[in-house]
Structure formats: C-alpha cells, structure tokens
C-alpha cells in the first residue's frame, strides 16, 4: 500500500516518515516539500541519513492509496478538495477540519474557511472516540496535540462532570520546526513559560468532543517531546477508576496508571510511542478530581495517531506499525 | 555582625553561604555539618573552592548574632529552644514553626511537636505580609518554597475570592541535596511528573496566610532551580492589576508583569535572585482568573527570603545583600 | 525463538526488552531480577505499563534459545559457565569477557577472573569487525559503549595511524540505573564533568580491537542517552572518506556523514536507533585527523548491538528488529 | 564613575548591565540599541523588569568615563576610533582588536580591518597575563570566550610544551542572542554537536598569547552558560600542580582544583561567577597531560572579565563587583 506525505519537512512529517518506514504494509511513495525540493530526506531530517527518499513537488495526482497532509493551518484546506476528488483517502494533520462549526473555526483561527462543505465529511481522527466512523471514512482530520491529551483525559466523565481547568505542559517540538525569537535555545531552555494563559485554541476541540466547558492554560517546559495535561475538575470527587478502565478496555493505546505518584502519567514514560497514559486521583477534602494524561505530542498527538487512523481506514489491525514501546530512559 | 548556619551542607545552607558571603554587614562565624565535620566548605559545595570556611560541630554557644537553621523538618525544633535561651536571634528554615495550629502541624508532618510553646513566638517569615512583626522578632520561621509562591500570588485577593486550584511546577533542587531512586539523573531528567497530585503539605501554609481554600497539585519539571505556581481562581474575573500594584508597592522584591505572555512570570527570569514575579490574566469567557508567580526556590523560596528577614530584624535596609539581578540567560 | 534476559531491571535490560518485544522472531520467555522478583515489569520500567511480563528467579535451566546476561561486571562470569553447559547460546553484556588477555582484564577491573578458560571462546560482539565469527559463535561478549564508539571510529585506519586521543562525551544512562551522590539530579544536570580524565577502562578494549595506542578522557554531559567520541589523531591528515565508505560498505548500521558541521555525528541524530554515525574531518594545517562517532549508548552501545549479534548467531538478517529510525527530534 | 554600554541588547550586554548594576563604584549612564531604541531594558532582558534603564541611540559623546562595546565583529572597529578621540576609556568586547597581526585577523575574520593603526594600542584584556599593561591602558580588547578558557589553561606551560589539542564544549549562549535554524530549541536541545571540527577562529588568539600550536575542536552541548576546555598535551607528563599554583598565586579568579574527578573543573561549578577553575591530570602511561578549564562564557569569558579590566584601568581592586560566588546548583 502506498502512502504520500505532503509537507514532509516539518516535525510531524518527520514522524510520519519514521513510523511509516517501519510499517509492514506501507511503502512511502512520495514526500513533498517546497523548501527541500529535490533534496534527500536527510537534508531536512539529519537522523534519516541512509533513507533513500527525496522531496518532490506536490501534485494532486501523486501515486498513493493514502495521503497525509502535514501542512500549516489554512494551507491544507486549499489542497484537500482536489485530492479527495481523485478518490484517494486523505488524512489531514492540520487544524483546518477539526471543528464542526465553521463559525467557531473561523473565530478561533482568524481566517475564512475555503472548503466549508468538506467539514462535515471529515471524521475527527481520534480512534478512541470515533473508531467505527474512521473505519468507514475517506477523509479524516487529525487532532490537536493538547486537545488529544485533554479529550482522552475527560471523555469517560462525559455526563458526570461538565467543567474543567486544564493546566497543560508542553514540549518544544509542539511549536513546529520553524524557529522564532522565543524558540532560540538560550531563551527557551530552562523555561516554565505560560505561553497561552487563556484562550487556547484547543479549548474548542475539547469542548466539541467531550461537552466540557474547558478553561485551559498552556506552559512551555524544557522538554523536546511530550505533553502532560493536568485536568482539574472542581466539585467532583467520585472514584472513577473502574469507569476509566471500562471506557478504554478496547483501546490498545490507553494505559490507565495506578494512583501512586511514582507511576502517574509522565511524558517521559510514553516518549516515542503511541501510548496515552491516564491517571486519576481524587481530592476528597476539596471535592476535586485530577486527571493526568501524558502523550508524545508528535506520536499520539499527531503522526502516530494519524497512522492509527490509517490502519482503521484500510482494515488493518489498529496497532500495526505502532507497537514500539516508549524509549526509556530518554 | 556575625551569622552562623546550622546544617550548612545542603542546598539552602549553600545559598545562605553564597548570599551572606557577599553581604556587606555579615561575617559568617560558623557553619556546621555532621557529615562534613572538619572539612572545607568546598567538599560539600564544589562551587566554593576558594572560600576559607570549614564545617564545625554544632554547639548552642556558637559565636553569632543570628543563627540560621537549615536542618531537616523535626530536627529544628530540637535545637530552637536552647538557642533562643542564649538570647541569639534565630531564623529557622525548616517547616517546624510555620503553622500556627499545632494540631494541623502534627497532622501535616506526621510527628509530635516537641516545642509547641514556641510556635506562637515564631513570626512567619514572609516580609511582604509580616514586615513589621519581623522587624521586632527574635525568632522567625522560614516559609515553604511552594507556599511562598502561592501566598504571594494570592494575598492581594484576600476578601475578594476564597477558592483556588494551584498547579505548581518545581525544579529538582526543591527536593534537597540527598538523592533517592526518583532523583537519579536518567530517571529524573525530562520529567513532568505529578509528585504530589493532592494533599500537598504547603496547602495549610497558604490557607493560614491567605484564607483561601487551597487545592494544590505539584509537578517535578526538568529544571534545577525555580518554581512556577499557576493559580486558577474559578468564578472570579475582575481586573485586579491595580490592586496587585498597590498591594506590593512597598515590596521591593515583587515585580508585577504585563499580561503579554512574552513577559508573564517564568522561573528563568528570576533565577539567582530574590525576586518574585507575579502576573495576572483574566479569562472573562470562563469567569476565571489565573495568577502566575515565579521564584527561585532556593532564594526567595528559602535562603534569600531568610536573609531578607534578617535584614529587617537587625534594622538593615530590606534589600541589603540581595540586590543581584537574576542570572539570565541561564 | 525464545530469549531470556538475566538481570533485566537495569537500563540495558530495559532496552533488551523494548527491542525484543517488537522483534518478529523472538518471544521473551523469561526476565529475571532479584530486586523485583515476582513483580510486573512496569514496576522497574514505568514505560512498559501494559506489557505482560513478570520478573522471575534466575535458574540455569531457563527455557530459552538464547540468554542475554545484563548483570554487573564480575557477576556474569559466575553464571556463564553453567549456562553454556546447558547448550544454550549466551550473549553477555558485562565486561567480563571483553578482553582477551586475562592479566589485562584483572588489572583493569581489579578482580580475579573466575572463568578464564572461557575467555578464548567468547567472540567480541562487534559485528562490523567480527561478523563471520559471531555467526558461528555460541558465546558472544557484548562491547563497552565508549569502546564501541571508539573502535568503530578507528577501525578503518588500522595500519595507517596508531595513536589517538579520544575525548568522549557520555549521557547519564551509561552510568546505569542505580544512583549515587554524583547522579543526584540537581548535581548531575548541567554538567560537563570529566569523570574519567585518564585511565578509562575502555582504553584496553579499543587497543585490543584496533591496535591503536589509546589515551581517553571521558566527560559526563547533560544527556540521558548518547555518546559522542571525538577521536583526535595527531600526525595524520590523509583524506580517508573513501576508505571509510569502503570499509563499512556491508555494515548496515554505519552511516558515514558529510564533513559539513551541520551533519557531522551528533548523538541526537541516532537516539533510539542502532546506528553509528561516523564523520571524518582533516586538519591539514595541524596535520591532524578528527573522527567523530555517535551512538545511542543503550542501543548500538549495548542492547541493540547484542541483538544484532543474536540475529547473526541464529542466521537471521542482521537488521531484523533493529530497523527503527532514530527518534528525532527528542 | 559612569559607564556606558554600546549594543546592550545582546547577552554580553545583558551581563554587563547585570554586573555593573551591583558594582559599588559604577553608575550606568547609557545603554544603546538600535533594535530596542527608546524601550525599557526589560523588553530585551525580561529578567530586568524593575530596572530603570532605557535604550538610547548611540552617540560618540555619551556621558561616560568608560565605554563598553558589545557589538558584533566588524561593527566595533567602526566606532572605536571616534570614541577614543573623545578621551574616554574603551573596552571592546568584539574580536576586532584581539589579534596583533592584522593579516592573521583579516584571514581569520574574512574582512578588511578599517582601524589597523589602533591594533597596537589595544591591550589584550586578560588580567592574568596582562595585568600591568591593562592598568595603564585607555583601550582594552576583550578576549574570546573559548580563547580565555584555552589560554588560562595553557599559559603556565609556556616554554615547557608547545603543542596542544583543545577539545572544547560550549553552552548555547556563546552563539549570541540572535537565533538561526541551528539554535531552534527542538533542534539544539540534547546536542553534542561538533560545530567547529577544525579551523576554530580562537586558535589564533590562543597561539598569540601562549605560543602553543593549537588545534581546536568545538562542540555545542546542552547547556546555556558554560565552557569546558579539555586541553590534551601530547608527549608531556610532568607534575605541574605547583607550577600552576605559583603562576596564578596573585590571580584571585583562578582556582586550581584537586585531581580527584569529583572536583575537576565543571562549568556547573563556576556558573554566574568570574572564576576560572583549572585542573591538571597527568597520564604517565601515554605521556599526556590533560588540563581542564571551566568558565562561565558570559562572565569570565566576556562581561565579567571586561569589568575586571575596567577595575584595573581605574585603579580599583580587581575583584570589585565580581565577588559573587557561583550559583550552585543551577
């Protein structure tokens, strides 16, 4: 089966290549990049020195069974319509088709949506919540990385609680592969920096998928890969361990941790893997429940999850090519 | 003026030595350590190679005008009574005399208090709240590092709000200078680890000083020095910038930051200094206020603050010896 | 095919489990640990939460086709004789059987060798130099991690140069999973610490395998995984790029890098993989050649390489189970 | 006494401000920056929030007794002539006046020197070697940071040995405050990257000051501040401990360490201070001497050293304003 990656010079592109390269059912048929056009893949990704792949130019007629779009927001919606018309299956990792309400999307991303008719067609690419729809889909939208952590932490509580404060800690690779003043190493290392104190874009995604009223604060921490979402749920302190285990019993990438702080979710325990660790602790004294979830933002938060969707779309076993254990310690 | 440090081989001891060594009015007359008895200071603190100081044995009759106790919890309360009897001024950096209610202390620290009669005498050593009492005190209790960050973030709101969720991110030096399995470098580096999901000991200190009902979750992050406390106050979203500026207008170590995420509190901006940066952002949509506070846990969270108290106790200018700007970038 | 790991609670044990778990031809039949006896694997390795494996007790009659020993130095040589007697194939990751001259071994490791008769039988487990012997071997000795980096950097120059100064930078996981005062996170983070200025144990291994007179200095750097060996060869400045490419043309895990500093070996480009990147730069002005080699100390420097040997010993393709690209960026 | 800093928005500018702000004899009369013209100092240096200083425009008639130039290479030599004409004392932190041989300078820096007549006038600003000249100087050139580490490590051996391989490990702040693709945090963190395998510019500076034939290789490591220079001296293995102690007996910022690896130079032990730690280990077996030197690149490698020179130029005690102990652990 052939897969092409459009916009493969960034970090999600790199992780798509990395994982697909070992996927038993996939041959990478094309990777595109304007910046690296004609160059070997290792010019963009020095870790891939010996890989025989070159960046080519984008064309809608790329020879592929499935196309991953790893383009910046608003660039994807320009390409999706013409790709879908060719009959190929498309997985879009941008934010362009994540929100079902186009008005909320336009407000959140500050742009006019140019393919609103395709929004409904796009299945939200979170297998743990939309497995059956994904199996039947031709077009899947990737999920936001902080959103993924938040939604997976909250989904089992839908109907039991409805308000949450999410305090999220995020590694530097979530900012993408292009630098700015804030990502200059001496300025960025050693940070615990609240880069999105309020109004985080992913609030809407979490609300859409869980019904929770979400108030999020995001911090940049000194980590390359990884997200920890600490979800504080006020006025709620039931023991929900069993509920979580049941909810995710058929989801191979969700691991429910013990309450012992030694084993609670920590991005370090999932790095390099498609796992999402979830731990729940109740604070009876203050009637609060804290749900922690940890993911590798580039794997379960982006490329790994997209490949998990691809497996479902093509009738493969959900875990195919994604079974690597986390790299620990790293 | 002579200062002695009891238990000077740990990290708060080291920072007391570091700051007092440059203090214009202080001569360090003794540093004690059982472990390093008779040895040069640099055997414990390799950064102090050329300093002419040796660890000596503890005696209550140490030649000093002020004694800093940098001992583990419960060890301090054994020494404080006999020291105070000699007439020396005492600043205790342990947790032994921080809580005014001995029952809460005993429950929180799981031990019997052996000097309950001295609790009332101990002034809580946070100059921003207890400046006048500290000036008259013979005995000051240091404050908890996470507690310091939390209290300074919340104090101006007393009477306006009363419930808070504090999500705190803490550097590794807060765990002290003695290692355990969890502090082994390969296991600890790259962590965002919720080590105290609920029931953090400092909740009581913050409650005592601010009246807030405090629900805290603490995370170990990949940082040696520094604390960021993110205080989520639900059901409250007034603009309190002016309130904060007014409240701290006579407090030289409090810096109120702009709301712009570029300048919000970040431990990186205070490392090595006695500053506490505080920033307030309101989330009108969700009727939430977020207060961020950043400190260097070993300086404003421990040794610097103790010296700030000492200055007040001896009629010196509050900033003496503490005016160093943060080390940036570091 | 069944594999057992003796002493599986440390970092090399963890990486053996991690890689073998995805190996298409291997079933892990037993993992042993005295410390974690009877416990689930994730108690020692929190990244392996869902893996269904428990630590059992060591017995020489373990049901396995191949046994990996991941024991401390001197503990291995106690077990190897009885294991080999059972007819099982053995790969020992300790230093016990790396040196062919027992006198040098005893001097280097400060101990009496208890199985000197087996030294000759042990094939030095570096496939790039001993591929054919390994294919026929029943007993293979793992290689030192710094030694691996050094030997692979120097082997092509054998006969052309004979003296080298190796300045090696090593990540914290090379020190093992047991902590000490020097590995306490606040003390270890931010280090560039010369922990072995002279007399590094691996000098002898490199000398044995390359003939070079090796003078090594090793530094602990702020990295969990990874080794960079900078090999300074004085009085030699021929262009040897082609020589290197030819020497390693049949070695799938060796990647020769361009001279451009942008792509020279960097542990970051090999983390999580079995690759060894090698780059050569000549300094005509000072008649010096610098050879850089980068590996992941736990993979190509230990567990990955042991599995590469296993593949050869059992007639499998050398790369089987080891084809994962590096995790980048991480 | 008044000091002005020209080009104060970078990292050496920041450290000049930081140190001069606490200097008992100095008032900062002006800081200039084109980029931040008219803005408060904290807009460039967020750690300096409360400092009452604004960036102004450069003018040669700035009101100052001493002017520090913290400009990029080649920009300094445009300004120095007109500044010196006003009679003010000048300390230039750029590379423009470090090399005495203008031909070597032009070859090394790839530019035409526009003020060659002033080269001879510039005293090389390393007090440990040029203390008496600096006392009498009106114009001092700052030193390269890697050069400082190298020269201080080698100077005592002048006449005893003459060839050295310097393997240097450098923190990210040495690359300056302006980012590029290589300093983007996810790409730069976790690096041990040989960015200057041969032909390092500072070789010439070290040669000029010590007479050694210097062959240098420089690596970027995961550290914000700090340099470790490992100087491998082949064919030399005398015990020179006493020699070093004698050579530096009147140099308050040089600390000779024990040979015990526990205490050998480590940038971590000097961060935030003007100290240079030096340790010497001999490798009798291979007739090699290894000299380690560690500095904070922004302090002893740049701004601190410039202020040390200023103290000497104005008859102040050499240590004034520079007595802060290192920040440890940090």
Automatic annotation (TrEMBL), chains A, B, C, D:
Active site (catalytic residues): 145
Documented EC number(s): 1.2.1.38
Pathways per UniProt: Amino-acid biosynthesis; L-arginine biosynthesis; N(2)-acetyl-L-ornithine from L-glutamate: step 3/4
GO cellular component, one term: cytoplasm
Membrane recorded as keyword: no
Pfam families (alphabetical): Semialdhyde_dh, Semialdhyde_dhC_1
GO terms, biological process: L-arginine biosynthetic process
Alphabetized HAMAP family for the sequence: ArgC_type1
Annotated function: Catalyzes the NADPH-dependent reduction of N-acetyl-5-glutamyl phosphate to yield N-acetyl-L-glutamate 5-semialdehyde.
Protein name, entry field: N-acetyl-gamma-glutamyl-phosphate reductase
The organism's taxonomic lineage, starting at the top: Archaea, Candidatus Undinarchaeota, Candidatus Undinarchaeia, Candidatus Undinarchaeales, Candidatus Undinarchaeaceae
């Amino acid at each position: 089966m052939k897969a092409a990656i459009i916009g493969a010079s960034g970090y999600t592109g790199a992780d798509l290549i990395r994982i697909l390269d070992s996927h038993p059912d996939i041959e990478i048929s094309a990777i595109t990049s304007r910046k690296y056009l004609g160059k070997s893949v290792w010019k963009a990704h020095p870790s891939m020195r010996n890989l025989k792949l070159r960046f080519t130019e984008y064309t809608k007629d790329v020879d592929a069974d499935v196309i991953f779009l790893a383009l910046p927001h608003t660039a994807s919606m320009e390409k999706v319509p013409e790709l879908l018309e060719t009959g190929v299956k498309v997985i879009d990792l941008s934010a362009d088709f994540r929100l079902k309400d186009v008005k909320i999307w336009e407000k959140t991303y500050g742009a006019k949506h140019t393919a609103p008719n395709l929004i409904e067609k796009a299945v939200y690419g979170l297998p743990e919540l939309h497995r059956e729809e994904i199996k039947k889909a031709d077009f899947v939208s990737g999920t936001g990385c902080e959103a993924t952590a938040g939604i997976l932490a909250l989904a089992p509580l839908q109907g039991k609680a409805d308000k949450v404060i999410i305090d999220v800690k995020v590694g530097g690779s979530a900012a993408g592969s292009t630098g700015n003043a804030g990502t200059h190493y001496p300025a960025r290392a050693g940070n615990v920096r609240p880069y999105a104190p309020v109004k985080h874009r992913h609030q809407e995604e979490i609300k859409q998928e869980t019904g929770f009223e979400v108030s999020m604060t995001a911090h940049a921490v000194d980590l390359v890969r990884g997200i920890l979402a600490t979800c504080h749920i006020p006025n709620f302190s039931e023991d929900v361990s069993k509920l979580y285990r049941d909810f995710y019993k058929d989801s191979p990438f969700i691991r429910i941790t013990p309450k012992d702080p030694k084993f609670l979710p920590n991005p370090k325990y999932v790095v390099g893997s498609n796992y999402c660790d979830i731990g729940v602790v109740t604070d009876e004294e203050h009637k609060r429940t804290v749900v922690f979830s940890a993911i590798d933002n580039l794997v379960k938060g982006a490329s790994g999850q997209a490949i998990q969707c691809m497996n479902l779309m093509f009738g493969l076993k959900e875990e195919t090519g994604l079974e690597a254990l986390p790299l620990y310690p790293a």
